[in-house]
Design brief:
It contains eleven helices and 21 strands. By secondary structure, the chain is α+β, with helices and mostly antiparallel strands. It has two domains: 226 residues, 3-Layer(bba) Sandwich (FAD/NAD(P)-binding domain), CATH 3.50.50.60; 144 residues, no CATH class. Strands 1, 2, 8, 9, 10, 11, 19 and 20 form an eight-stranded mixed sheet that branches. β5 and β6 form a beta hairpin.
Length: 446
């Protein structure tokens, strides 16, 4: 049975972008409903890095202390382990502001924090188990969505003055709207798996590039969330080679995990991430806006996806909330302004990711026989991930290319990549009406 309801701003997807947008709209006094297709946030997220720009935003929203109380690991330096030793790429302690680190927090804790803050606002509604299955139209304008209640299978209509798709890189809203992203080819996919973490292991994270592969290990307290690069499209062939060969490849790259590698019992413990790098040419239609991964799927390089999506949400709220609060229809010109503001930092970051794919990562993606791809060159061009402890023997300067030698010789230069990684090219700040300190500010137009 279809029921008809209405809201002012409808957000599809209860991820970081969707919930942050919902919170900001509610603090503007806009009636906002967020549809989340799952019953909770307890899923195996892998993007758990919260960068300095987002930490600053949380402070502005009055949520910094609550976030700091969550279980987390902090990364202050970005390093990578080569066959020849350790290279430090970025020193986040040189960042401006109060947050000179990247926090690794289980994403479900982050989402619960934002949802709790949003639900304290009287104009905010979060509907769980609500899966968008189609769009509603009023003439040529998107006028809301049709969604399925996953608890009983019933379908409902929810009409809205503006619909914002935040439902990820496999966006059902994008598909229903007939929008097709431009895809940039990538040379690798990622295998995700877990390994137990011991008390004397490195803290924060480990990046490892060897002559036969590239791996990243993210510290989640009692276990490692591991990412291992494989050549694009080689998943089936590598699985056919057997779990024993995969274990051997990992222990050859990371000998210190040999004492726990047998916990990978089978390939059921190894999940494939089909890496995509995509971007819509146009992020909007009348009555509809797409942000975050729905508008631009990011590579895992740099772990910037969450923070870029959150920045999209902040810009969206700042530019659109006044029009929504007045009760008027948001014109296409305002939707275009959101894209114009967020397009160039997105394109810039994706360009850097494409360069990393081509120059560094793709050449080190594992193959079914476990050897380097024929285009490989000697292991002198690392890509970084954090290692909070900074342990290990430094790589001899003579083995490194000039840019890396300069970073080692002049440590102050490490503040440049730190800023690019942790803050980004266009950080967004909370509008004054959304900020909370000792007392709430007035919403726009009050």
């Amino acid at each position: 049975m279809l029921s008809n309801e209405r809201t002012t701003c409808l957000v599809v997807g209860g991820g970081p972008a969707g919930l942050v947008l919902g919170l900001l709209m509610a603090r503007a006094g806009v009636e906002v409903t967020v549809l989340e297709k799952h019953s909770d946030f307890l899923r195996d997220f892998r993007g758990d890095t919260v960068h300095a720009s987002t930490l600053t935003l949380l402070d502005e929203l009055g949520l910094g202390e609550r976030f700091a109380a969550l279980p987390q690991r902090r990364m202050e330096r970005a390093q990578v382990m080569l066959d020849t030793g350790v290279v430090q790429l970025a020193d986040l302690r040189r960042l401006p502001g109060a947050h000179q680190h990247i926090a690794m927090v289980p994403q479900w804790d982050f989402l619960d924090l934002i949802a709790d803050a949003a639900e304290a606002e009287p104009t905010f509604t979060l509907r769980r188990n609500a899966e968008a299955v189609g769009l509603l139209h009023d003439g040529g304008r998107v006028a809301g969505v049709r969604y399925r209640d996953r608890t009983d299978g019933t379908e409902h209509e929810l009409r809205a003055g503006l619909t914002v798709a935040c439902d990820g890189r496999a966006s059902a809203v994008r598909e229903a709207a007939g929008l097709r992203p431009r895809s940039f080819g990538v040379p690798m996919d990622v295998w995700w798996f877990r390994l137990p973490r011991h008390a004397d292991d490195p803290a924060g994270g480990v990046g490892r590039i060897g002559s036969g592969g590239f791996a990243v290990m993210i510290d989640r307290g009692d276990y490692w969330q591991c990412a291992y690069l494989i050549r694009k499209g080689s998943d089936e062939a590598m699985r056919a080679a057997g779990i024993a060969q995969f274990r051997a490849q990992i222990t050859a790259l990371l000998p210190w995990v040999a004492d726990r590698i047998e916990t990978l019992a089978s390939f059921d413990d190894v999940k494939l991430l089909d890496v995509r790098l995509e971007r819509l040419r146009r992020w909007y239609r009348d009555g509809l806006l797409l942000i975050g991964d729905a508008a631009h799927a990011m590579s895992p390089v740099g772990g910037v996806g969450i923070n870029l999506a959150v920045a999209d949400a902040v810009a969206t709220a700042r530019l659109l909330a006044p029009a929504l609060r007045s009760g008027g229809i948001v014109p296409r010109s305002l939707l275009r302004r959101v894209q114009l503001r967020r397009w160039w930092p997105t394109a810039l970051i994706q360009g850097a990711q494409r360069l990393a794919h081509r120059v560094v990562l793709g050449r080190r993606a594992a193959t079914p026989d476990g050897v380097r791809m024929p285009t490989d060159t000697p292991d002198t061009a690392p890509a970084g991930i954090s290692d909070q402890q900074g342990a290990g023997t430094p790589a001899p300067a003579g083995t490194l290319p000039l840019p890396l030698r300069l970073l080692q010789r002049f440590p102050a230069l490490q503040g440049v990549p730190a800023r690019l990684i942790a803050i980004g090219p266009l950080p967004e700040h909370a509008p004054e009406w959304a900020r909370r300190a000792t007392a709430p500010a007035a919403p726009p137009g009050a």
